[in-house]
Each structure stands twice: as C-alpha cells, then as structure tokens.
Amino acid sequence: xxxxxxxxxxxxxxxxxxxxxxxxxxxxLWAVLSSVKxxxxxxxxxxxxxxVPHWENFGRxxxxxxxxxxxxxxxxxxxxxxxLTMLLGSMAAYVxxxxxxxxxxxxxxxxxxxxxxxVFLALVPLYRIVGNLGQLPGIGPYLGLNSYLGLIxxxxxxxxxxxxxxxxxxxxxxxxxxxxxALLDGASHGELxxxxxxxxxxxxxxxxxxxxxxxxxxxxxxxxVLMQRQSGTDTDHSVLAQGLxxxxxxxxxxxxxxxxxxxxxxxxxxxxxxxxxFHRQVQAGLTAGTLx
Amino acid sequence: MNHGKIPFIxxxxxxxxxxxxxxxxxxxxxxxxxSLTNWGGxxxxxxxxxxxxxxxxxxxxxxxNAVAHNAFFLLLxxxxxxxxxxxxxxxxxxxxxxxxxxxRGVRGSSVYKVVLFFPQVLSVAIxxxxxxxxxxxDSLGLANAVLLRLGLIDPAHPAQWFNDPNxxxxxxxxxxxxxxxxxxxxxxxxxxxxxxxxxYEAVVLDGAGRGxxxxxxxxxLLWDTVSVAWVYLGFIALDGFALVTGLTPDSGGGGPxxxxxxxxxxxxxxxxxxxxxxYACAMGVALAVFSLLLAVVQLRITRREWVEF
Lengths: 292, 309
What we know:
Distance between the termini of chain B: 41 Å
Structural class of chain B: mainly alpha
Largest sheet of chain B: none
Distance between the termini of chain A: 45 Å
CATH superfamily of the domain at 70-236 in chain A: MetI-like
Order of helices and strands of chain B: HHHHHHHHHHHHHH
Oligomer: heterodimer
Helix content of chain A: over 70%
CATH topology of the domain at 70-236 in chain A: MetI-like fold
C-alpha cells in the first residue's frame, strides 16, 4: 500500500518537475524560433519551424531597431558601473573591516541601512540631483541626465550598500598574521591592500562581482528615469532594458513581430550563453551573496 | 606601524562616502522632507503642509486600491514561489530512487538546476516582452495557442489575460513566480547540500517516507534560508513596477480600469505624470515604512532556535 502510494507520489512530483521545466524552456525556445520566421509565418503558424530561416530579422533589429546601439550603451554603463562598484566597495569595506577609528561603526551602519530602503523612495529627489549636476559648468554634460557617467555613478552608489556589507564580512575573516608580517616587511597600507588583501579576497570579489553584473544588468527603473533624452537633438543613450520595451511598443504599431522577436533574442542570448558557460560560479556567487 | 594610517583611511573612504551621501542618503532625507510639502517638482514654490499628504493618502481611492493589490502579491507571491522552489529543490536533491537507504537527487538534477535558473539571468525587460507575446489576447500567443490545442477555450473567445480585470492580477502573479522560482530553487539546493546525508539516511532507515523526511528534517533545518527568502520576495511583491508598467494596459500600466494598479506605478505617475512631487514622496515614505515593518515582522515570526549541525 505504502509502496503504491509513494509510487504515485513520485509520478506526480516528477510530472510537476517536467511541466515546470517545460514552462521555463518553451517560451524561450518559442521566442528564439519566432525570431527567424517571417511575419506571415508567425501569424499563420506560430508553432511550426520556419520554411527558410530569415536571418535578416536580426540585421533589422540590430540597426533599424537600434538594438546594436542599446547594446553598446548597456556594455558601457555595465562595465563602468561594475568596475567602479568593485573598486570603491572593496576600498570602503576593507577600511571599515580592518581599521579601528572613531565613527567606523556609524559609517558602516549608514551603508548597511541603504539595503533596507527601496530605490523608489529616492526617485524623485534623485532625478532633481542628477538634473542639477547637469547644469554645472564644464563637467555638467558628463554627469547630468542622459549621460553615461551620471548613470554609472548612480548605479555605483546604489550598489555600495550590499557590496560593502558583503565584502566587510569577507575581509574580517582574513588572517591578521599575514597583514602584520607585510607591514613589518615595510609595505605601506596601500600596498598591503593591493598586493596581499585583495588577492586573498578573490573568491569574495568574484561572488559580489557576479552579483553586481546581474543586478545592474537588471536595472530598469533608474535608467527609465535618468536616461531620457532631454531634447529632440539629444542622443539616445537608452540601455537594453529600456530600448527593448520601447521597441516592443513601437513594433507593436508597425506589426514587425519578427523584428521584435529577433531583438529579444539578441538581448537574451549573450547573457544566457555567459551564464551556461559559468553557471557554477554564477549560481555560487548569487546564492552566497544572498545568504551572507 | 601606524605610519600613514589616518591619511590612508581618509583616502579610501572619501570617494565612496561622498558618492553614497550625494546619491543615496541625501535623496532619502529629501524625500522625507518633501513628503511634508506640496512641492510640485518643477515649480520653485513649496508650502509646508505637515501630515496633510498622508491624510490625503488615506482617502485616495486609487492609492488604497493600489495598496490592496500589493497586499494581494504580498500574501500570495512569496508563499507560492517558496513552496514550488522548496518542492523542486527537495526533488532534485533527495527525490531520486536509490537503494534501501541511499538518498540522492533525481537523474539529471544538475541539468535541471542550470535550466530552471534561466529566468534569473533574463533582464526584467526581456521577461516583459516575452510574456507580452506569450499572453497575447488573440489566438497567436503561446498561452492561448496551448489552451486551444487542448480544447480548453473557444477559438472565438480566446482568454484575455492582462486585458481582463478578473485575471490580470493572477497573470502578474504567475509571471512573478515564473521569474523567481529558479533562483530560490538553487538557493535552497545549496542550503540542502549542507545538511549531512546521514541524517536523511537515518530517517529513511527508521521507515519514514520522503514526505516525512521533508517536513521533519529539511524544512526545520532550512528555516533560516526560507525566512531570508521570504523577506526578499516580500520586497519584490511590494515593487512590481517593471512588470505592471510593461504588461498591463492603460497609459503607464495599471489597467484595465485600475485593476492592477500598484503603489510604485501610482507613485511614478503622481510624480512624473501629474507633477505632484510632494504627494508622491509621501507615497514613497508610506511604502518604505510598510516594507521595513514587513521585514521586522517577518523576521520576528520566523525566528527559531538556531540548529547546529
């Protein structure tokens, strides 16, 4: 009796696993498949394989749909944002974790408090602050609304709480003996950080680095508010997330479904490929980041 | 050994603190202040109105409606996501057939873990565009096409998904759960792997089934992780901006006819659409207080004795 019950339970649970996997994979496969079909094929037979693969959909999405431009914008912002976050985050976390000085705890807690507050709360004044920075003489255009550096600095500031929090606990676990030996050997504090402590913290840096790449790649609200063209002649600096959604709206009007699917595939595949290649590190990094 | 310590500390902290103060601390403080004014955002003038904005929120029908919808997500989304993720994680780690006391995951569990994690690496914009096409309201969307094949809906009246006030919240809930399960599945798997195998084997030898093993061993030992997951998912349930604005009808999202309005959408529209920045800031503060309370309450409820193993 128990045997039969556990067998039907097994059947149910494996069935559920298969159904859930299908629900994850099918929409993605369907989007990729639709990206090489013609519009007529998408409309008449959404299920079948394309007669001839329409690779030109990708060219159209890349140039006419500006996916290429959005891609470049995203890579610029992501590269700057993650590198600067890692640099400034590890510097702050290191000093807070390993040096005693008055105010240390306060600074640390102010950073960590940022974890609990939703970005939404800051949105309205943030828009004003970045806008005002844009009015500064000389450097204004590089820091204001719709500028790469402006958005990068905002990403960095909002990534600092978690990065500092995570690396702080990491730097604390590093052995004191090594640090003391290096200082006795005549290393300066800066050299100790760069040559000794950073290399020892590499696993932690990798985890939080991956965490930040995915976190900043997923940003939608901040670019939506801060990366808007300010005038008709302003260049469009939209990141992929914004651009793709705008494309979805405009392609809907033009009914260029195949172009939209191609754009979505272009936005989706690079991240999926990188993930599949490094899935162990990505999963370990993300889960370590959450559990710490 | 202390030579150059002070300049070093200042040098390393100066830039991070300056950035953080300018872009994070100052906007939060300003929001708290503006929530007490009737500032319009673009005009220079503002009057101090005290708690007037907060009182107005209490009788603002659209806002209260939005709060109710966030409460809907808060009640259903974390529990569904965690339930499915725990179930699948248990299956992948402990659910396999084995010899009498052998405990292992189902075959191919590592492949499942890679594939089921996919939604986590898709940007939310991709999720939006994907589900716009999956839940198209004619018979060409994936969801309607599947239901048509199975004979569950009438070809003349395909399901209206996001366009139907009765189903729009459920469709959003589905997309949220779809996006979240993969990550928490992997998170719970990692936590389960740290539970010694012998504990399971002992329980199975004692004659307990897999279900009993789950409720008596896995769940209690995973409780801390589950509780953290609950708080994170709670924050997501209180936001929902990108999904609602991208997937639901009406200008800026929240439709049809305010059926899927959430606080974040209402805040964005109030600030940037209607130019009532002071009022929008009050919504932001209300939302923040709400989420802080949620985190505190949640951690209180789920706190248990610490188990060493």
